[in-house]
Specification:
The protein is α/β, with parallel strands linked by helices. The chain folds into three domains: 112 residues, Rossmann fold (3-Layer(aba) Sandwich), CATH 3.40.50; 116 residues, Putative Large Serine Recombinase, Chain B, Domain 2 (Hect, E3 ligase catalytic domain fold, Alpha-Beta Complex), CATH 3.90.1750; 181 residues, no CATH class. It contains 14 helices and 16 strands. The strands form five sheets. Strands 1, 2, 3, 4 and 5 form a five-stranded parallel β-sheet that branches. The longest helix is centred in the C-terminal third of the chain and has 40 residues. It is flat and about 85 Å long. About 4% of the residues have low confidence. The structure holds zinc ion (ZN). The site of zinc ion (ZN) has 10 residues, from α9.
Length: 480
Amino acid sequence: MNIELKTAAAYIRVSTDDQTELSPDSQIKLIRQFAKQHGYIVPKEFIFRDDGLSGKFADKRPGFIQMIANAKQDPPPFSAVLLWKFSRFARNQEESIFYKSIIRKKGIEVLSVSEPIIEGPFGSLIERIIEWTDEYYCIRLSGEVKRGMTEKVERGGAVSIPSFGYDIIDKKYVINEDQAPLVKKIFSDFLNGKGIIPIAKEFNAMGIKTNRGGRWENRTIEYILRNPVYIGKIRWNPKRRTRRNYDDPDIMIVDGIHEPLIDTATFEQTQALLADIKKKYRPYTHNEVKREYMLHGLVKCSSCGASLGIIGNRSNPALQCVKYTHGKCGTSHYVNLKKINSIVIDGIAIAFESMNYDLIVKHDESTAPEIDTESLIAKDQLKLRRVKEAYEDGVYTLAEYKESKEQIEEHIKALSRVREQRQNDIEDIKANFVEKNKNAIATLRDPSVDESIKGELLRSFVDHIVFFNNTGEVRIYFFE
Ligand SMILES: [Zn+2]
């Protein structure tokens, strides 16, 4: 008896054009025998049948559809589908490939109990042919659509709605005489030092709309400044939609057949200036920013998870959810900076005192991944129910039932021991952690210590802090 008892589904279908047809009950009987020999349990609720169908319902196969729907669950409730014959799975090869590829993606095998699994090199060769065919089948349709577009791009044709400054006439880019001077103005204003936002504001003030009918924003202006269509080229990504990811390696830029609006030198100067600006204003990373307050970037909004940023003036600084400031989070998380500083420091002191705190233990990648004892125990408990069912259904003898029950229970005990050991380990780690970091509290409270030094210190053991606006409390997540 195998301890790794797996769950399988059975699919039963009666074929009217098979001379050697077995009754549904006989099919179930053979499937059950096979399951027993190969360590599978077939619970009653996973026996799907399409027998006794006639007339217009013969096409529908409700049992089959239900089986596929179950297989698509995450995680799937069974690891194999058992059939009397492969021909019962689907009615033609196309259907078979289609559904097999769906359930194979979930790691589910399709096994016939009367046709042998082919072992050895030929078996794996056939496997690979099947997989290759599956894949071919799935990508064929979308591939044909993309191939058509790629060819069009390679011929220099227009594949999307026109860029501002052009119309598409007879599938070709033709200069729009009203918009062309505006495109030239964007490039020359930008190179003359006008900012992207002022350019957008001016266009909106003049009542000009984008080609999608919208208002101008910094990103729509930037999109124009970066679009090689204006030097007579076509940019297109055959793999994915990348409207504003200008660095995607799959982007194709090919010569178009349309008239440029901008000369190449101007375009290149523009790209260089854009790169300069990006460098100057790129978001600060952890190491290079000089933080003028110790909680910089550490405190998160309890509603949306965004960081709280500093607002207010020098004499009365406060933190607020950055998304709230931009109208994208519904709940204000305003808190006076001095106040939250002391809430955080007190919070750390209380956490260390009580030893009741959240510690994120970051594993180094060389160690084995931790096993999830909780879910393994839950799985074993399910197995216990399954073997009981198998015994009640007469698939297992009493002796077999007892044996597998004992094995599973033994396994649960072993897992529980692992869980307990880990609990003890965590207590030890937490105690060490407090010992190592408790001196930080005095430094954080010392008014003569620079805020940036306090910030560095805090970041050496605090991962992040969540501020709850409704209670005014914080939750501190430490890391080891
Ligand atoms: Zn928020």
